[in-house]
Predict the structure.
Amino acid sequence: MTETDTTLRAHPRRWAVLAVMSFCMFIVVMDNTILVVALKSIQQSLSATNAQLQWALDAYTLTYAALMFSTGVLGDRFGRRTVLICGMVFFAVVSTAGAWSADTAQLTLWRALMGIGAAVVPGCSMAVITTAFPPAERAKAIGLWSVANGIGIACGPVIGGALVGTFWWGSAMLVNVPLAVLAVIAIFLLVPNTKDPRPGRLDIAGVGLSIAGVGLLVYGVIGGGEPGGWLRAQVLGPIAVSVLLLAALGWHSRRAANPALDLMLLRTKKFAAGAATMSTTFFAVNGASFVLVFYVQILRGFSPLASGLLMLPVAVGAALTGQRSDVLVARFGSAAVVAAGAIALCAGCIGFTLLGAHTSMWVFAVLQFVAGLGFGATLAPSMAAALSVVPGDRSGAGSALANTFRQLGTALGVAVLGSSLGTVYRDRLGARIDILPEPARAEAGNSLGSTLLAMGQAQTGAHGYQPAELAEFSRRAPELVAAAHSSFLTAMQVTMVISAVVSAIAAVIAMLWLPRATPRERPSAWKATAPVGSEVGLS
């Protein structure tokens, strides 16, 4: 019996299988956001720069995105249960190692390896669900599986905040171990080891080109935010090489029989528009979240748990519009819904530019909610529009490419906005950092957290101040604190303007190239390809 035949029959334990696959997705999606609220603790414990924190987040996203399609091919060939178990075991082992990282280089390495383990889950779990459920129940099953994505995204900051506040930042990674062990046991006991009798070939060249090309692009962008600026060989060189590698990836994808990323799909206007709107909205939301966590934790002084709770409104707003986006699309068309969502996201980002050092956090929560409403309205319709033009036999490639663009938006959002934050902060603070001892100035001037940390060290005598020098420093310290807060707020305003502009670009793309009406005969297919609520937060 072929796999096509099995997809027409119901597996007797299909709902238990769905629960296990949903739990696996919860674990790996949670790790997209769980470390956000630990950034302050990581910065203090490992003396991390903004660039190093950006890499700690982006390393997971990049490997996760680059390998999603290829790990699905491994599941087709060797059995989905086998590959899922191997992936979750690997994920648990490297999470354990990452929790005890001694510096940011180790943390970045372990996070990248975690992304490799996590990458097996989306493709394999979706294939398992497809074979376990008959067509009549499949859309409902995929919709419930997608809820796990949203719950994981929303719970990440809250769980991370509770753990970091109680233990130490490494506990936000160590929590993966018991969860992964439980998942492995459930997979072994409940999930069938299905295979594809005609599996595709692993595109090693395509995977290598995509990782190297995107990785060097992000490396160059992050480097642009460090001292010395953008016009340096260390910045322009990696970006130039990345352009060449991505061009080679495009050339390769036109000739490979089973490309890791089928870039030829981008020649279809509707697919390209859907992928672009997803990428730009993820850029805006995830980049803004990276910046706003410093506002909440460092400038406003909230605990990791409180910071996680303050991030929840964006997920709540996204859930509300995400759950109704199919009705909205049926009435108004994808173009209007996605454009309206992008405009709402733009409005939220503009509102963030008005935040000050003493703004009520109710204002912050409302702006998060507004941004979330817009975010939720854009995602499922964008994915549906992209996949609606993909032939059934290429749906896996289409989904992989669309999700890769989504994750690429996340990585570039953190890279671009993080670099912009550091550049503007350093320029605004300028010579006012000179009240610190000279050895401490270079690092202290890169971020608000570094400035305040260096000041605390100076006041405890860590820099060898004589009593008279310490008295003079203490007298001028409030002046530097005020300058640091003002410089950070200015830098944050710049990053929020960038997010707003990118959101507005998403609205323009939607109005120009997404469909203005959804055919009434396709609502069930729409839900099957892009289930309601599939994206209800940050990823």
The longest helix spans residues 467-513. Residues 1-7, 521-539 have pLDDT under 50 and may be disordered. The two ends are 38 Å apart (CA to CA).
